[in-house]
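Run folding on both entries below.
>entry_1
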Amino acid sequence: MTSSPPPLRLARLSLGYRSQEDLAQALNETARSIGLRIAVTKKTIGRWESDSPPWPQADHAQALQALFNRPITELGFSSSRRSTSESTRPQAIRSRETWASRHAGAVPGTLPQSVASDFMSAAAAYRRMYWSVPADRLQQLVATHAALGWDLLEQVPGAGQKLMARAVAETSLLAGRLEFFDLQQPQLAVASFGLALRAAGRADDSLLGAATLAHMAFAPAFANDAEQNDTQSQRLESARESLRGARIFAERGQAGAEMIAWLDAVEAEVETRIGEVRRALELLDHAELVYAEYDPDDAPSPVWLDWFSRARLAGFKGNTQIAAGHGVAARQTLERALTELSVDAIKQRAVLYADLAAAEVLDRNPEKACEHLGQALELLGEHWYATAMDRVRAVRQTLREWDSLSAVRDLDDQLYNWHTMIRSLAT
């Protein structure tokens, strides 16, 4: 009879880390995101995935718990090996354990009810900060807040646990958005979305579950084969499965018109990424019909659904129209979106300018394309957004036949200045 695989290996595979080296890299990135400096290697993971893994050092344990969102005793580490391991470490290292890690598994219900409402207030504050605070600084705060909330969840009494779980789900979903769209750290985003889904389940909040599952569709849709060691068909099926789940949860939670329109837009973006442009346009047409029925006074959306609007739906449509080769229609759609977009939506405005540039390239207007790319870069100088920068670079590649134009040379001066290059390498 064969023995079962080590728990850490099963947990690693459940998060999509196919090799020990992948997990080591993810742990190092997670540690940096919560203010730790560690250097986990493939060899370290090998020891941890053995039949009798040694108890990890405190910083390693913190990183493991932050990445997997569970106590390390559920990852195959036996507390009976802890005393030996800790006795050989200097006191300075042992003292760096957090309050949450020392008190994991404490007596349930020992915290006041007010902790849950305080956590939700902080979650709302972080949500508002997203539009103005630099993403790399905010991500560290948000991810740590979500992890702490999950650690403390069992210690919140009674009905406060559901409120606490919703706060964790909202915060971890925001962390995943920061990691995926703003900072291009998909491995961290996968872990954050995983925690958001578990917390939404604890809160029995179907709409938060739907939002999280829809976000989880982005990772396989936007990855390439080299990143995931999967074929395009495998990644497409993974994205579609997440979206099927999102729609089921949305129906279960009686989602309103705005959320249904957003799910249509997300699915359209996934279909656009894999070349199913006709299907994507059908989804966007349906989203527009659904959104026309939206009455925020009659059936308001959840307060956390602040990343979508009619203008943003137009942005989705304009990008798909570009993929379909409809330059004139895309330009009209995107110009309308810019007019309707709120003034504080700087990140999305940068995306729209990059897409407008792509529409101009389709119509062979390189000077106008450069003008719009320059506008996008100016906005990125105020608020960095990796997704927008990706689109700027992609459009620049389509301008190669016009490299000799002064407008293109001026664009390159702006694109490859010190600030932009250093910021690009930092993400």
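>entry_2
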Amino acid sequence: MSDPSPTSARDGASARAGGLRLGLAENWRQFGLLILVNAFVGGMVGLERTVVPLIGVEEFRLASTTLVTSFIVSFGVIKAFTNLLSGHFADVYGRKRLLVLGWLIALPVPFMIGWGPNWGWIVVANALLGVSQGLTWSMTVIMKIDLVGPKSRGLAVGLNEFAGYLAVGLTALATGYIAQRYGLRPEPFYLGVAYAALGLVLSIFLIRDTRHHVGLEIAGHAVAAEPVRFWEVFRRTSYGDRNLFAASQAGLVNNLNDGMSWGIFPLFYSAFGLGVERIGILKAVYPVVWSVLQTVTGPLSDRWGRKGLIVAGMWVQAAGLFLTAATRQFAWWLAASILLGLGTAMVYPTLIASVSDASHPTWRARSLSVYRFWRDMGYAVGALVAGVIADLFGAPWAIGSIGVLTLVSGAVVAVAMREPPG
């Protein structure tokens, strides 16, 4: 795959002629619309956090935890590969087109999950959701970074992820409440129909492309970059650059433990007699804490640097996982969910900002796509590994094992990552 040469001095000249400027204050209207759109993107994932694993066990009578978590595997693998390609195609065809395409693909998902006659429909729906999320979430974060320029990347990512994961948490809470009163299907998935329709309408009629903002940044960049081919970007981001490698492996492990919690936690809580509404509370607390605190940790990473927040955040997540595995009471699980949310808030926006720091704007979208490939492959790896361990040894062992991996990943960042000068 060759370098698409997406932006040039001509893009920068046209951006200046059109009066475009970089910065959050200068682009607050589009930035705010993108926050709203990403809330709907996150809500589509939140539909599943509480209810879908329970559908597998209670409606389709799946006896194997590995089979129950298969919907997360399909989601994670497809989303990872979509992420890998999305940056390249965003440079070639524009960010907005891919955003709209992602919403079109999302439209059948809530219908397939809410009314599908067998578990295969759930797995296929999650493959479609993976494509949709790989396009929509990738585009919203890339477009916000395009708009604000290099000085406020942590803030931009923090606000983006705040909107998405607040919607994940609130939707997980809402679906638990609805399922407790009306059943696991189809009523909780009416929310998804509304999210997909609203996200598509906003993306078509109100969102504008941001490629000219990238041209403006390139025109003022101190270091000119030679064209870089896609596979060279893949190599650099995966292992060729120590900062990008550290971020990629941490992103993978971060979503590995998130994928595990997505599939295993509802079954783990349910096995100890917790009802679906209280499971919904626990499943909501983690992403809500994560989302809200990102508005603090993102800007802090701009001031304090990226490495310390990433290392500490991975270790706080590990502590939350160990506490979950070792306890059997709602209050302790609630405390563990808060720790997981805090640790993820420290890590999530900071990792994306660190990848942006280490990438030239001419290939930043592709580098972010490679990072997001590795990060979201963690969903599949975490769900699969945790499902197998849970089937063999029980859910507490699965949760504790992922906690150990998270602890080790933080240590890798501590050794490998270097803060950029100045």
